């Protein structure tokens, strides 16, 4: 092996000690290093950054320089320029060569929480159903490979149908086009996959699912700030992310970490939804803060984002969700359904949906 080639291999191994800010894996494993060259004692790194960034974060640059210092090599970073942002509501050019994965989708919305158990999937399914009820052609992608909940919450066990080649059709339920790992498995089959396999599946859901013309695609993200979130930021230009929390302090702290991750990868943050906000006594109307008070406000204050909705604790939300009938569909006149409809209107305005382009599918 030539000295130059050996030095490049050492440089690549050195970069395995460098993590991208906000993500647990190193930049080599995440596929962010597109190429290395050795030029007069310096390593030129062709760096693929998430979210269409053109400059690496200062912390990342310092860590990469520090990783090469013991080898006596300097670090020169080069990045690709992103595509220009389109006007709101127009078909979007994506920030990377793969980013035309959704050419017929007007807007892509991520629903996220770094904390599990906050009801993020309940928010995602009801929000998608509220978009569909408003006449928007809507898709719902369950990106939680290890704990897919879409089949239960949307009430379907239907398998996606083949569409020729590697492609497949989404399942349509409550007027929403749906895809989830759970639609390919029986309820007793665990998913025992490493991170790169999960990232590959998400790319397949984006590339090979025949979504067709959609006004909005809602992506229900898993908890955390790992491979799925970074893959999504790299592959698709997100029109915005919605952050879900509960009033509890333990949830608030994790959600704040999550919002910082989205900020670092330049994904627009739309606002905060406080789920399980309060319980209203059906007899007297008094409110009880079962899970604490003010969590949504604290996240909003920490992030400078608006608090878009406070979803109450309603037994019917759980009961209808378990029955596969989101409360937006099953009890459209309930307080929770009204809040979800108002949230869909607010979020739609923020991502530039405007008027519905086409009637939503029905099933």
CA radius of gyration? 22 Å
Helix content estimate: 25-40%
The helix/strand order is HEEHEEHEHEEHEHEHEEEHEHHH
Percent strand: 15-25%
* Biggest sheet: strand arrangement: 6-7-5-8-4-9-10-13
Number of domains: 2
- Mean of residue pLDDT? 79
Q: Measure the end-to-end span.
A: 62 Å
CATH class of the largest domain: Alpha Beta
Unreliable residue runs: 81-99
In the CATH hierarchy, the architecture of the largest domain is 3-Layer(aba) Sandwich
- For CATH, the homologous superfamily of the largest domain is named as P-loop containing nucleotide triphosphate hydrolases
CATH topology of the largest domain: Rossmann fold
Q: What class would the helix/strand composition place it in?
A: alpha/beta
Summarize the main sheet: 8 strands, mixed
| Tally of separate helices | 11
Shape: globular
Number of strands: 13
């Amino acid at each position: 092996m030539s000295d130059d080639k050996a030095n490049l291999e050492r440089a690549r191994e050195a970069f395995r000690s460098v993590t991208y800010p906000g993500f647990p894996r190193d930049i080599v494993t995440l596929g962010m290093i597109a190429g290395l060259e050795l030029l007069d004692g310096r390593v030129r790194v062709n760096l693929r950054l998430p979210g269409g960034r053109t400059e690496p974060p200062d912390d990342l640059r310092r860590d990469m320089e520090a990783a090469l210092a013991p080898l006596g090599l300097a670090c020169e970073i080069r990045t690709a320029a992103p595509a220009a942002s389109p006007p709101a509501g127009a078909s979007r050019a994506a920030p990377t060569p793969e980013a035309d994965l959704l050419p017929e989708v007007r807007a892509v919305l991520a629903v996220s929480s770094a904390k599990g158990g906050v009801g993020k999937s309940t928010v995602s399914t009801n929000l998608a159903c509220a978009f569909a009820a408003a006449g928007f052609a809507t898709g719902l992608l369950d990106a939680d490979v290890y704990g897919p909940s879409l089949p239960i919450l949307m009430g379907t066990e239907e398998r996606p149908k083949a569409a020729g080649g590697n492609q497949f059709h989404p399942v349509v339920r409550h007027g929403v086009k749906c895809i989830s790992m759970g639609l390919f498995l029986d309820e007793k089959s665990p998913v025992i996959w490493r991170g790169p396999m999960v990232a590959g599946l998400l790319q397949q859901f984006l590339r090979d699912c025949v979504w067709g013309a959609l006004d909005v695609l809602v992506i229900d993200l898993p908890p955390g700030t790992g491979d799925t979130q970074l893959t999504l930021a790299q592959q698709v230009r997100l029109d915005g992310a919605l952050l879900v929390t509960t009033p509890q302090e333990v949830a608030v702290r994790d959600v704040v970490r999550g919002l910082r991750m989205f900020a670092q990868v330049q994904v627009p943050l739309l606002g905060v939804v406080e789920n399980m906000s309060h319980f209203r006594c059906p007899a007297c109307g008094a409110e009880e803060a079962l899970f604490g008070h003010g969590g949504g406000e604290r996240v909003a204050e920490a992030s400078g984002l608006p608090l878009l909705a406070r979803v109450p604790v309603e037994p019917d939300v759980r009961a209808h969700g378990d029955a596969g009938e989101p409360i937006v569909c099953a009890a459209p006149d309930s307080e929770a359904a009204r809040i979800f409809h108002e949230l869909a209107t607010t979020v739609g305005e923020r991502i530039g949906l405007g008027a519905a382009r086409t009637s939503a599918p029905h099933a």
